[in-house]
Specification:
globular
Length: 429
């Protein structure tokens, strides 16, 4: 609710796609830096405490924004600062959460467990945006943020109460036969470096680069990293201008944006529940790539639409694919990485994906505000070619970019089926 309300507040203040995209960029930027060290932290610290810390920091940021808003001092740069703080600590929290799943469920249930996490993610989207869209004109940002603070209290209390298992540190335990030999050798080399007192800087550098080296030496993991990075670049390039595109094409109607967000939540929960019952495709790579393609098709239809009659079903179908692609992708990483190493390996994956996402988010706003939107609103070659499809009113340039990105997402999925390296890991297992 608070994220939705802050989006409306920022759009009312600036009317700029760049301003909204920069909120996402400043959330991603610290995640890139933190990812370098987050893996080491998660592999050696108590993961439950890290999750509590992430919630506490986010709650503090919300409280600061509320105070600034009530005092009449809230500015757009405050949102950038809060997004940076939340993004940095949120990265550690997210990594601690994802690495804990491996120790809570058996390998054959990785896809199911991750799909249940999708229920959590999309479940809040069913009613929260709709409620926020109705409440925002009535109680404003100052009335919605206190609700956010109350939910943080519930989240922290829940974490305090439950037990989160920690990985066993003894060398070799919990490692699958497919990963044990090479991983064991690397772990022994690292232990030998520490035992022989090798230069501390060299040992530290070895620790923070362990994850990316672990991935890059394995063809299947390297290919998985590249193909997912390409997909999320295309996804986030279009996603950065999703909300301003809807607001521009609906005359700043918060209830339209809320309805579309609710449709996304319903689609995501439906897909996650179906996946939890089904368990996913026999080959998880196929599930991931089919999800890429399905999301690309649905988002293409969404971008071509200009009313709720197209947007609502297209958004539902789009979100239907993400539990499948996301859960399959995470299950592949979990299956390929021993629990003791997952913090550093998952952090390396997150580092690359967040880096390309930050680049996509940074260029999306200026690309629309300075090039595509003006071009579609005036007599240009671009307008003459695409105005029959997207129109020539506000939001047309953003819709053009959104559709191009959606087609690219579909193409990544098709291309992935031709990469034999992607299937090597599952063949080995």
């Amino acid at each position: 609710m608070s994220e939705f309300a802050l989006t409306l507040w920022a759009w009312e203040l600036t009317g700029s796609a760049t301003a909204l995209a920069l909120v996402g960029f400043f959330s991603l930027l610290p995640r890139i830096f933190i990812s370098i060290f987050a893996g080491i932290i998660v592999d050696h610290a108590n993961r439950k405490h890290l999750m509590i810390l992430g919630d506490a920091i986010a709650a503090s940021s919300t409280l600061a924004i509320l105070i600034l808003h009530l005092s009449g001092n809230l500015a757009i740069w405050h949102l950038y600062l809060a997004a940076s703080v939340n993004g940095g600590f949120g990265q550690i929290q997210q990594l601690a959460y994802s690495t804990s799943i491996t120790l809570l469920v058996s390998p054959q249930n990785y896809t199911r467990a991750n799909s249940m996490n999708s229920v959590v993610h999309y479940g809040s989207n069913i009613i929260a945006p709709a409620i926020a869209g109705v409440l925002y004109p009535i109680i404003g940002l100052g009335g919605i943020l206190p609700i956010d603070l109350a939910t943080f209290g519930i989240a922290i209390a829940t974490l305090v109460w439950i037990r989160i298992p920690q990985p066993v540190r003894e060398t070799g335990k919990h490692w699958s036969a497919s990963t044990m030999p090479s991983a064991l050798a690397e772990a022994r080399r690292a232990s030998g470096d520490r035992a022989t007192g090798r230069n501390k800087l060299s040992v530290f550098w070895s620790e923070i680069t362990f994850g990316i080296r672990y991935i890059w030496r394995r063809d299947s993991l390297r290919t998985l990293l590249i193909i997912t990075a390409l997909f999320w670049f295309a996804h986030d390039l279009g996603g950065a201008i999703f909300e301003p595109m809807i607001l521009a094409r609906s005359d700043n109607n918060s209830q339209v944006l809320g309805a579309i967000s609710s449709a996304a939540g319903i689609g995501g929960v439906t897909g996650a529940v179906m996946l939890s019952a089904w368990g996913g495709t026999k080959r998880r790579v196929n599930g991931m790539l089919l999800g890429f393609m399905g999301a690309g098709v649905a988002k293409t239809i969404f971008g071509l639409g200009q009313s709720l009659t197209v947007w609502l079903p297209a958004q539902f179908c789009s979100s239907l694919n993400f539990p499948l692609l996301g859960s399959s992708q995470k299950a592949l990483w979990m299956e390929a990485t021993p629990p003791e190493l997952q913090g550093r390996v998952f952090a390396a994956d997150e580092l690359v994906v967040k880096l390309v996402s930050a680049i996509a988010t940074l260029i999306a706003g200026p690309l629309c505000d300075r090039i595509l939107e003006p071009a579609m609103l005036s007599s240009t070659i671009l307008s003459s070619l695409f105005s029959p499809i997207f129109g020539n009113d506000a939001g047309a340039g953003m819709a053009l970019l959104y559709v191009v990105c959606a087609i690219a997402m579909f193409a990544v999925g098709v291309f992935g089926f031709r990469l034999s390296q992607l299937h090597q890991r599952e063949d080995l297992v």
